[in-house]
Amino acid sequence: MNRMLRIGPALALSALATVLATPRVAHAQAAATPPAQGPTIPAETVKANTATKGSNELAKGGFVTSALPAADDPRHATEVSIAAGGLFSSGNARQVALTSIGKMKIRRDEHQLTVSATGNFARAGKTGEKVDTTVENYQGLLRYDYFFTNEIAAFIQTTARRDRFQGLDMRLNIDPGLAYYFINTKKQILRAEAGYDLQHDVRRDADRDIAAPAGSPPGTLPTFVDKTQTLHNARLFVGYENKLYEQVGFVTGLEYLQNISDFDKYRLIFDIGLKTNISDKLAIATTYTMRYENVPLPSVVKSDSIASINLVYTLF
Q: Residue 101 burial by CB count (10 A; 0-12/13-18/19+): exposed, middle or buried?
């Protein structure tokens, strides 16, 4: 019996050692045996992120293969803004001056549409005297561009201007041509344009008379220039826009119109503007425009200029 008691503990210890060793052996065997493989899926059948990119463009060819990064791609843009400014005074001098402008530019791939309109009006006079109109002009622009590449575009542009103090009931310009963009991004544009300009003027009756020359016989009546005039011009334009800084924008342009049938007649138009953002949507813009015409109507001076400060609200 004593012998059986001695054998019992030995068997118990052996059994316990076997139980403790079993998990290690099983783990070692599992590590030595490679896991079972599932059915193989061809590499191009499914890609993990194909359905989550949100893009449905598959065939990209022709014009849309531009290497410009998406954030700086000018082929898809919508810009709409309105601006207004004014000056009001009373007391010894009374004056009211108003200026406003609206702009819209839409670009979709190779198509671009630009529309803008502006008006300037002012009246002034001393207290107790008649108040007279001193500035009155209204202008509009409509333009379509077709981009063959990111650098080359064909365009047709039409502008209309009514300006009391330039003696114009209406000046209509139709300008087809070609544009070359040395730089064309959302933040910076440098372009040159060349083409033809058709100019049709309808003149104010009050500015058509030419006084009789000095030394004319008494009673000689003044002569009148034609009510309308149509000119054919060659047109050159250079323009630059800079929006590299988030809070500041700069734009300038110079346009030259040379009469084809009479080389003694030409026009120059120069614009420059600086815009500073107050907030994401609101900005202050300072602009200056100078127009020079070397052979104007007899009662009109050769150059006109307008400087203005406007509050600009950007819708898009």
A: buried
Q: What is the DSSP letter of 50?
A: G
pLDDT for 247 equals 87
Cα 311 to Cα 68, 78, 174, 213, 278, distances in angstroms: 33, 20, 30, 48, 10
Cβ count within 10 A of residue 305: 10
Q: What sign for the dihedral angle of Cα 208, 213, 214, 218?
A: negative
Listed by start position, the domains of the chain span 74-314
Matching residue, tokens 């609101």 = 282
Q: Looking at residue 210, what is its pLDDT?
A: 72
Instruction: Annotate 183-212 with b (16+ C-beta within 10 A) or e (fewer).
Output: ebbbebbebebebebebebebbeebbeeee
Mean pLDDT for back-to-back runs of 10 residues, the chain (316 residues) = 47 47 47 51 44 40 40 80 90 89 93 95 88 93 96 96 93 97 92 97 85 66 84 97 88 96 93 92 93 88 90 88
The single-letter code of the amino acid at 36 is A
228/230 Cα distance (integer angstroms): 7
CATH architecture of 74-314: Beta Barrel (2.40)
Report the candidate in 200, 181, 199 with the shortest Cα–Cα distance to residue 191: 181
* Cβ(261)–Cβ(219) below 8 Å: no
72: tokens are 């700086």
In contact, 222 and 206? CB cutoff 8 Å: no
User: Residue 276: enclosing H or E segment and its boundaries?
Assistant: strand 266-277
Dist. CA 184–CA 178, nearest whole Å? 15
Cβ contact 209:167 at 8 Å: no
- For residue 178, give the nearest of 200, 149, 142, 199 by alpha carbon: 149
Residue whose pair of structure tokens reads 């500015």 in the numeric block: 207
Predicted pLDDT at 121: 94
The residues near 114 (Cβ < 8 Å, ≥ 6 apart) are: 103, 104, 105, 141, 142, 143, 144, 145
pLDDT, residue 33, reads: 52
